[in-house]
Design goal:
This protein is mainly beta. It contains one helix and six strands. Helix content is 9%, strand content 34%. It starts with 13 loop residues before the first strand and ends in a 23-residue tail after the last strand.
Length: 110
Amino acid sequence: MTQLDKYFKKGELIPAVIQEASTGEVLMLAYMNKESMQKTLETGYTWFWSRSRQELWNKGATSGHLQKIVDIKGDCDDDTLLIKVEQIGAACHTGNHSCFFNNIDFNKKD
């Protein structure tokens, strides 16, 4: 059993929340498999598993909008990662700095 195995007991993919280290802004959510997590740990840059393309991808490899790892933490259940990064360029494929820019109206309760 490797040190990574504990993160994949519940399934082949785990969510990774990507956060700007300097501001705390949540940039994106992506998924990792064991191979992409290993590549992330080895290279110091984020690697993910694309559920739509069914392949590994190195965030920013083609756009230049790389994510340099500052810190990685696992949650209390070992099934989600919080990855703090130094974001180079935009994190979102739309060109926005963060993927979280769509407001959703809701009724505020006091």
